[in-house]
Amino acid sequence: MRSLLGFLVRRFGWMLLTLWAVYTVSFILIKLAPGSPFSAERAVTPAIEQQLRARFNLDGPALQQYTDYLWNIFTRGDLGWSLKLEDYSVNQVIAEGFPVSASLAVFALVFAIILGVSAGVISAVYRGTMADLSMMTTAVLGIAIPNFVLASLAILLFVFMIPIFPAAGWGTLRQVALPAFCLGAPVAAYIARLTRAGMLESLNREHVRTAFAKGLSHRTVVLKHVLPGAMLPVVSYLGPATAGVLTGSLVLEKIFALPGMGSHFIYAATQRDTFLATGMVLTYTVLLFTMNTLVDLAYAVIDPRVELE
Amino acid sequence: MPLQLRRAFMILAVVVVGLAVVWAARFDAMPPAEFRFQNGTDPKTLDPHRATGQPESRLLFNMFSGLLQLLPEGPPDPETGVQPMSPHPALATSYDVSADNKTYTFQLRRDAVWSDGVPITAEDFIWSWTRMLHPETACEYNFQLFSVPYAEEYANSVVEVGDRVEVELWDRPGERQGSEPNYQNFPRGTLRYGTLTEITRPPEPEIPEDANKLARAKIMADWQSQWVYTVDLAAVRDGQPMWDEVTGTRSYCRDLASPMATAETEQTHGVLVAFNKLGGIEAPDPYTFIVHLEDPLPYFPYLATYYPLFPVPRHVIEEHGKPMWTRPENIVSNGPYKVGLRKLRDRVRLVKNETWYDADMVQIESIDAMSIEGQNTALNMYTTGQLDWVTDPPGSLIEELKKRDDCIIAPQLSLYYYELNTARPPLDDVRVRRALAMAIDRDQIVREVTRAGQTPAYRVVPPGIQGYDPPPGMEGSLEDARALLTEAGYPGGRGIPKFTILYNTSEGHRAIAEVIQQQWQNNLNVKVDLQNMEWGSFLDKRQQKRFDISRAGWIADYPDPNTFLDLWLTDGPQNNTNWSNLEFDRLLEEAASESDPEKRMQLLAEAEAIWVDEVPAIPIYFYVGLNIVKPHVKGFFPTPQDIHPFHLLRLEKD
After folding, report:
1. Are strands B650-651 and B85-89 parallel, antiparallel or unpaired?
2. pTM
3. Which of A53, A283, B360, B622 would bridge with B455, disulfide CB 3.0–4.6 Å?
4. In sequence order, what DSSP letters do the residues of B477-510 get, joined into one string?
5. Is pLDDT at A180 greater than 80 in this prediction?
6. Letter string b/e over residues B95-131, b meaning 16 or more CB atoms within 10 A of that residue's CB
7. Test the B interface: residue of A7, A29, A42, A48 with most B CBs within 10 Å
8. B387 vs chain A: nearest CA distance in angstroms?
9. Complex ipTM, two decimals?
10. Cα distance from A96 to chain B (closest Cα, Å)?
11. How many CB pairs under 8 A join A and B?
């Protein structure tokens, strides 16, 4: 328990340090980018731009801006106002977009894990059969096909040819199905391949042979003695996979008109929405860090040999 | 790790995943609105004084009512099917124009209320227009009121000695002398009125040679905040300053640390001309609103139908401030619809506003303005019945869509053009500019690239403006173009430097630029590079005039040639071309003060003839409006500015 707490505290410290570094780099990059958040087709006069800058505390020396903004984030968690979505603060933008992205990610991941692990286990147990071959071929395709192509195919198939899902939008379970499928499919394919490889390796281990020799049923051996060992690579893949699912939803958000967080990332950067861009980068940093920490924890839980450090 | 703990973790993990799925599967059931349309990008804001784009205007025109509103008038154009729109009474039941066309007296309806029941009076207009013009509001459309006396000076914070001014003291809510400023410009601090007798300025700071535009603005702003204004205060009776009754003399300064400030100097947010106390706009009684103009603008009624001039709810803005007042839970409006709910990047739901003066006219109870950017997505949703109106159909399918009955295509008052930087040789030579303009085959562009029935453009003012007889457009064959180049010293295109065409990243713009690149190469042996930039950098580069040739577009703010011609005034904010022609400027100025409409149009046509002759930009085509609307939606017709009042729409139940 001590080691666990110590681990979490250390990780938290590292996260703060990383956040600070990420903040600094993005601050510098934003300052270096050409263009201004206040430029519009109908040019604003320098005097008005000056006032707008003062209002958002963008008029002082760069170092002052750097420390003021950092102080606001650190003490009050206040990420400032979005400059382009004027009616919203950055915190509100994240608060509205995050649940959508998270909910989509949960469905995509759960779908990917269930499908991927089952396919991997079946492939490994019946290796060399047609079932194995077809599933692994599908998996290769699943990894290779980019999700926007998959989305177009899925829409063609399940919206127009067999109309069971709505074309786009957000708000009902049926509307989540297609995007979650498209987002989860490549992950599922990857998990299937990892599971199969892990299973095949474990099946040849001595403790598995012993288990079979003891006369345990095939099913018990596979589920209790083979699968946990085979899961290690899958678990370590889940960290980056979660990150990929959260950030990779951007194209799907456009295709399926989902109000998630991904697109804000691009818009904030291209429209010089200083605060929103920083806010998004920091949010993603926290998410990635948390996911990686959870993966490391899970590792220690599954494999007794792993120590938390 | 002990075994029990590991077990516990396993169970915990399963429970967490289970809970996550349950959480993710929870959706607030929301019945769809009666009418749903694609609104493009998520609206930037719902504040009429801050909004600019099309998605915002579709909402604001239906959430707020102004003095007048655009309604269909007369039969549709027999050729194009475009339904002319003209200003009709809205909050004003009627209006009178003085003989010199410079004074408009609006009679307001007495039953107009905000959606929370607060009545709307002439004072609301005075307050709203003041807010719209106030420099700290930074309304991009504030120039629409610049023909009201003192409006321009007010918006640009220009004051001179002798002006009658308002002084806003440093006591906005939460402020005291020397404190940090409160950036909510309304409610305002205490206002003092008086006559400006002196401005004492510290020595003007030196601006370093290498300072950029921003640094310059900052230095100037800091310097100006140190100016000390001496004002002979006027007595105020019934809210009206008695300018000639001086009650004392005080000095004011924004920055009390100014070397010019004395112990008596009071801190101020700014000294501005007392715009709303100088008779430009008046409210003699709660239901009469008078506007005085410096010029007899024949299009002023059109400006009054445009949302930046609509009233905004003072009581709500002063209570919640900007931008909190536009939150769905706070916002109050006065149009046919009000905001029911708003989900970022998903939708704005409009619901019928029962308190609107003409609520019986409104048939559709609820409308979803869906924030959908994907063109294919919108069409898919339309095809499967999730949308009733697509505003931005996919360009690649135009050929197919054009054949359908539910596709409504009509010309728009808007122009697609290439700006030429006339300060950069050889574009400073009008012969080169003319040759370039002549050597573009616009028919090929509209036929093979844009393909939606756009009209090739040889002028700056689009067709379809009533009473305007345009001058002949750019003419000339390829031979003429080559001859002009030879005359300019580049026979056969030899020796002409390579240009760069700048455009904002988009498939459509690239395709057009590529065709023009090829045409210039083949026809004139002129070589160009293409450079694309994302929107922010693109605007920056254009406004700093660091380009050779830049793509641009303009949509009419009001149906009058002036909206296209005043872009090219010398040093105008929209004139990125460095082009300046004093005769052109003079003609526009003369047209502005001309009260005979026919003569005015002639002056504008003369100005356009100069433009056509001088080619500060190359017009390419006039846009068309493309809408796909379900057949059961009645009352939808193409209009010149693509404005479609929702209260005229009817849904036919099958």
Report:
1. unpaired
2. 0.92
3. B622
4. -HHHHHHHHHHTT-GGGTTPPPEEEEEES-HHHH
5. yes
6. beeeeebbebbbbbbeebebbeebebbbebbbbbbbb
7. A48
8. 10
9. 0.91
10. 7
11. 184
